[in-house]
Design brief:
alpha+beta, Creatine Kinase, Chain A, domain 2, seven-stranded antiparallel sheet, three-stranded antiparallel sheet
Length: 500
Amino acid sequence: MDRTDALAPAALTGIRRGIEKESLRVRPDGALAATPHPAALGSALAHPHITTDFSESQLELITVPHPGPEACLAELERIHQVVHRGIGDEILWCASMPCRLPTDDSIPIGRYGTSNVGRAKTVYRIGLSHRYGRRMQAISGIHYNWSLPGATNADYFALIRNFRRHSWLVMYLFGASPAVCESFVAGRAHQLEPLAPGTLYWPHATSLRMGRLGYQSAAQASLAVSYNSLESYGASLQDALTRPYPPYEAIGVRNGDDYKQLATSLLQIENEFYGTIRPKRTIRPGERPLHALRERGVEYVEVRVMDLDPFLPVGISVQTMRFLDVFLLHCLLAESPPDTPDEIAAIGRNQQTVATRGREPGLKLCRGSQEVPLFEWGGQLLVECEALAAALDAAHGGHAHRAALDAAVAALSDPDSVPSARLLQAMAREYDNSYVRCALALSHRHAAALRALPLAPDAEAHFARLAAESHAAQRAIEAADDVPFETYRQRYLSPERLEA
């Protein structure tokens, strides 16, 4: 994309951003809620804004794309208000790493009714539980969906390559998961250090969610997915979606009517592919995401590195969104050479290093054939963002993007000020270094604040109508099924449906 076109005011004011935010429902004592998805919130299968992620106890709240971060945050806040009115005395866990968890097989998997599409969603999650365990799937985060008018497939893949190279900076600035409840790693090998009874951590960690204990997979680590073009990305993904993987073949697909997973390939479906950022296209009913991408191109990118900020009622701030807008614009416009297998491996090492040791004094990262101090490399990137922040401020008025960039510069020079450090400080200062006690107290505080906010009667009526319509839509979907589930599964997973 021509830099002049990208920085034209019409393009900059045409940027759209939306949020998908995951949160666990917990009981007042901080234990995972075992209750079904509340009927008052609508159908998890069909509601446009309130659904579930892996677990029946894990809400996913979805905004529409917005022209400004203020409107995006306002909608996210409204959805939270509706949720808190519909979950009784339960609250939303404010942090990315889970609350106190029961045994793995007691974590409830999401249920979506009796339709073929609903059953497929549940069977997919059963497959995830066999492949990775349910605890890993109980991690929550924020996905930031971003688009720029006029951007082409090549532009978006250039953005993706640069974001992958530099996403460690976002993890350093906004990572907020340096500690975990010991229940999260029960029965698993780990190298975490004890901090207090029931709490484990790494002293300089930024985002354990993005480290080896989080969204990681030995199977997927074998994938050297290329982001050099839609064609190369599509070929890599199709291979993973169709290639049998022996450990998953050993699990099998079904035992009679008892389904264990959707498929025995390395990925069951496209959503199983974990990455810091993904190219996305809105799909039509029944359509495969890879087919949609290949046929109609990239519509937006989904940024997946953001932890929930436990100090904020809805997990993210307007200022953070503004920084992401500046940073993503930089990733799109900066030179973005093709990736290579060696660079892909180095990107993975840098991610792990910053996830577990990001605030360590003097930490160095791999850049090409050199080792560069994190502080030096991050400072260079932020300087390169200055002109883009100025352009966004000129298009929107004011100085808010410059302020967001200044806050990032300040955080880079003061590791004690970033959320991961502040969470450890709060734990030490008020909660005897207990992760669960600290996160529970913050969760109660946010729930009280959100419940105290007035909700306009028309907004309340709107969400009541959406809930009722979603239940009706689920019933209609169930009534319309005309083939057995096994026929539906085989048709949906047919390799032909991945082609453009």
